């Protein structure tokens, strides 16, 4: 048996008035996913345990079969693993976003314009982070560059601040009420203020403004944590796993769990990603000996954070009509039974532009078993099925062990 997880990050949503009180999953043209729904198990799974924040870190750990209440130690340490940072047990890490803040003179009076600095390129960001590191690094703290706007700060013998706000939660809002106020948080606030002065006249930002792009005007810290300890995926489930993702978070989880990371040219982590390249890489990985491939697509989530309804629907349609279409055409050629799990990690509703903890719809298709499924793959169809997986990290066991 071969296994494929098709993870549309943030794909689920709430009913939207301009869509006639339907969700993007209901409106999107996705006949290949919906055709599977008719002969698959369709239900709801609670991927975010009560008491934990609905981040992609917590939710993807859950989907991968790792109880977040046991294994989760923060988001940024997982990303640090992908970057290749060798953390000590006493290190504290924090995600360092390059963001665009408004131009008020007093830092506290600024507004969060863009949590991604206009989806800044990795090349531009690396130059900016290298420059900031040359000015801000000390023996105790160091900046490391990652992908696009996503970077990492490591603090030697640090402490958890505990009051850091994800920037995508406050897009378009004043930052004053969302700045760290704890004693430990004062360090982050100082670095953020210093970064504003260092970045304001940087040639990369001057050029971005000329091109009509959002400049990277500040660092923003969040997602702090400590060195994680994850069991190996093969030892946990008895199958060899591979990960296809454009983001450091998922690559870091894969690295720490012993899954193979597969790079795909043109994978961006947004709606313009190389959808067909990911599907092709999945099939090739299965041919090369992988038992399970986890295809992570960030596009619906990014569109949800941006409030971009049109592109969120487009992303869902691409997942169905490019990725899933290719899989159901090519997987039978492997001459082995196969199973496909389709789901988001969490909802990212257009209305709130951030993650929520609601249960998400899942679909499990098995090539060797046809089931009386649902009319379509949507939130309401999953609810009406009356099938639920109340503990998210149990879903992977259910998927692999066929129960």
Please characterize this protein's 3D structure.
The chain is about 35% helix and about 20% strand. With about 400 residues, it is α/β, with parallel strands linked by helices. The chain has two domains: about 1-70 and about 230-400, Alkaline Phosphatase, subunit A (3-Layer(aba) Sandwich); about 80-225, no CATH class. An eight-stranded mixed sheet has the order 9-8-10-1-11-12-2-13, sandwiched between helices. A hairpin with a 2-residue loop joins β5 (about 140-145) and β6 (about 150-155). α5 crosses α10 (about 250-255) and α6 packs across α7. The mean pLDDT is about 95.
Compact summary:
The chain is an alpha/beta fold. It has helices spanning 24-27, 31-37, 56-63, 68-71, 75-83, 122-136, 185-199, 203-210, 233-237, 248-257, 275-287, 299-306, 309-330, 379-384, 395-401, and strands spanning 2-8, 41-45, 92-101, 112-114, 141-147, 150-155, 218-225, 241-244, 260-262, 292-297, 338-343, 360-366, 388-389.
Give me the Rg, rounded.
Answer: 21 Å
> How many separate helices?
15
Number of domains: 2
**Secondary structure category:** alpha/beta
CATH architecture of the largest domain: 3-Layer(aba) Sandwich
Give the strand line-up of the largest sheet. Answer: 9-8-10-1-11-12-2-13
Major pleated sheet:
8 strands, mixed
Strand content: 15-25%
Q: What is the class of the largest domain in the CATH system?
A: Alpha Beta
The low-confidence parts are none
The CATH homologous superfamily of the largest domain: Alkaline Phosphatase, subunit A
Order of helices and strands: EHHEHHHEEHEEHHEHEHEHEHHEEHEH
- Helix fraction bin: 25-40%
- What would the CATH topology of the largest domain be? Alkaline Phosphatase, subunit A
Specify the overall morphology: globular
Mean pLDDT across all amino acids: 96
Number of strands: 13
- State the end-to-end CA separation: 14 Å
């Amino acid at each position: 048996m071969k296994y494929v997880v098709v993870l549309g990050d943030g794909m689920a949503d709430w009913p939207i008035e301009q869509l006639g009180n339907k969700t993007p999953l209901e409106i999107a043209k996705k006949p290949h996913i919906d055709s599977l729904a008719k002969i698959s198990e369709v239900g709801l799974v609670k991927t975010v345990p009560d008491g934990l924040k609905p981040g992609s870190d917590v939710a993807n750990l859950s989907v991968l079969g790792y109880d977040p209440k046991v294994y989760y130690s923060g988001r940024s340490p997982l990303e640090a693993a992908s970057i290749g940072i060798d953390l000590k047990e006493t290190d504290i890490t924090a995600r360092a976003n390059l963001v665009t803040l408004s131009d008020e003179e007093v830092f506290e009076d600024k507004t969060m314009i863009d949590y991604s600095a206009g989806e800044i390129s990795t090349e531009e960001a690396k130059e900016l982070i290298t420059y900031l590191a040359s000015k801000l690094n000390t023996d105790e703290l160091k900046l490391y560059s990652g992908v696009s706007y996503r970077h990492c700060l490591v603090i030697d013998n640090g402490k958890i601040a505990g009051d850091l706000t994800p920037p995508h939660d406050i897009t378009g809002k004043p930052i004053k009420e969302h700045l760290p106020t704890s004693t430990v948080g004062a360090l982050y606030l100082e670095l953020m203020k210093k970064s504003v002065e260092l970045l304001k006249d940087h040639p990369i930002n001057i050029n971005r403004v000329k091109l009509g792009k959002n400049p990277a005007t500040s660092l923003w810290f969040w997602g702090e944590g400590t060195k994680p300890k994850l069991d190996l995926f093969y030892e946990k489930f008895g199958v060899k796993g591979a990960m296809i993702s454009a983001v450091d978070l998922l690559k870091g989880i894969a690295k720490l769990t012993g899954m193979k990371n597969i790079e795909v040219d043109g994978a961006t982590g947004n709606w313009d990603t190389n959808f067909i390249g990911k599907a092709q890489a999945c099939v090739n990985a299965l041919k090369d000996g992988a038992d399970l491939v986890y295809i992570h697509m960030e596009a619906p989530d990014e569109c949800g954070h941006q409030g971009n309804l049109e592109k969120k629907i487009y992303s869902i349609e691409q997942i169905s009509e490019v990725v899933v279409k290719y899989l159901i055409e090519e997987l039978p050629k492997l001459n082995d039974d196969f199973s496909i799990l389709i789901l988001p990690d969490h909802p990212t509703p257009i209305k709130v532009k951030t993650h929520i903890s609601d249960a998400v719809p899942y679909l499990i298709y098995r090539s060797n078993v046809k089931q009386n499924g649902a009319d379509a793959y949507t939130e309401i169809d999953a609810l009406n099925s009356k099938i639920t997986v109340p503990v998210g990290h149990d879903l992977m066991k259910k998927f692999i062990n066929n129960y």
